[in-house]
Amino acid sequence: MSAHAESWHAALHRLQREGVPHALATQVTSAGSTPREPGARMVITADAVFDTLGGGTFEWQTIEAARRRLEHGEPGMSLEAFSLGGRSGQCCGGFVNVLLEVFPGSPVTLVLFGAGHVGREIVRLAEPLGWQLLWHDSRDDAFPAWADEIPRLECRRTTDPTAAVAELPAGSHALVMTHDHAEDRDLVDALLKRDDTASLGLIGSKSKWASFRSRLSDAGHDAESLARVRCPIGMSTGGTGGDKRPYAIALATLAELLPLTADAERPDQRGLDPAVLRDLF
After folding, report:
1. Where along the sequence do coiled-coil regions lie (predicted)?
2. Are residues 190 and 173 part of one domain?
3. Dist CA 191 CA 167 (whole Å)
């Protein structure tokens, strides 16, 4: 299997910045005749391979093991053992141990509907958090030029709120803050019908939510469903203290989101079981 020209360390850096699921395979031991030496590395994604452990059946088996774990969302470390004359059927006849480290990518997807002043400040503030960001707006030329420079950010122009909501990943955190109240209401209606968003926030005043709540109730949403909507956003942390500047609203909104995203963070990975290491060394 041919590898891409990009080196493993360049690919690792890029994939981690972009939040793409990937695995790092490191040859940690060798005995007898082996294609590569300890310390050789390769990076594996669902559809690409960067660098090589020497080729042959054992490399293919390493790639398959990594992709199985990526497909099933299994993060952390595992140790793969290869007898090149046995399990891998290669003629060199040596023995290799490969450490697989699987990185599941961005643990949180934040979806913003609306590229106005508050939306722009939220995107800027969320950039260092490592979240996957999906940014929707129905207007032409709504997104700022600097959006192209942010890793893990995808901008989408959409004029059909229902279709846009239908395409969202399950478990997304959604913020609705468009330039149009009717569009906001359609988006909240569609998001509540999906019933699989991790959280749902709506920008606006208490009177705006009272109006929306009445209309959404008439549309068939019960009290339990409507209680999932946070409006105004940022109020559970004490709000902005009356400061209505976009930056202040964005700060309060992200402070509100952080505890809501805690369950999606990756579990603490503390390496391999000590018994595995004892058997290895």
Report:
1. none
2. yes
3. 11
CA distance 170 to 172: 6
Describe the strand order of the beta sheet including 41-44 as a list of residue ranges: 49-50, 41-44, 22-31, 95-103, 76-83
Provide the domain limits for residue 12: 8-105
Q: How wide is the angle at C-alpha 125 spanned by C-alphas 124 and 127, nearest 5°?
A: 70
Give me the number of domains the chain comprises.
Answer: 2
Q: What is the pLDDT of residues 227-275, one digit of tens each?
A: 999 999 988 777 777 788 999 999 999 999 999 988 654 444 456 666 6
> Domain boundary residue among 89, 105, 121?
105
For residue 23, give both structure tokens.
Answer: 């695995």
Asked if 113 and 252 sit in the same domain, the reply is yes
> Do 184 and 250 fall within a single domain?
yes
Q: Which residues face 136 on adjacent strands?
A: 113, 156
Rounded Cα–Cα distance for residues 115 and 250 (Å): 13
Long-range contacts of 225-228 (CB under 8 A, 24+ apart): 225/192, 225/195, 226/192, 228/192, 228/197, 228/199, 228/200
Together in a domain, 243 and 135: yes
Phi, psi (rounded to 5 degrees) for 205: -95, 170
pLDDT tens, position by position, 155-173: 999 889 889 999 998 899 9
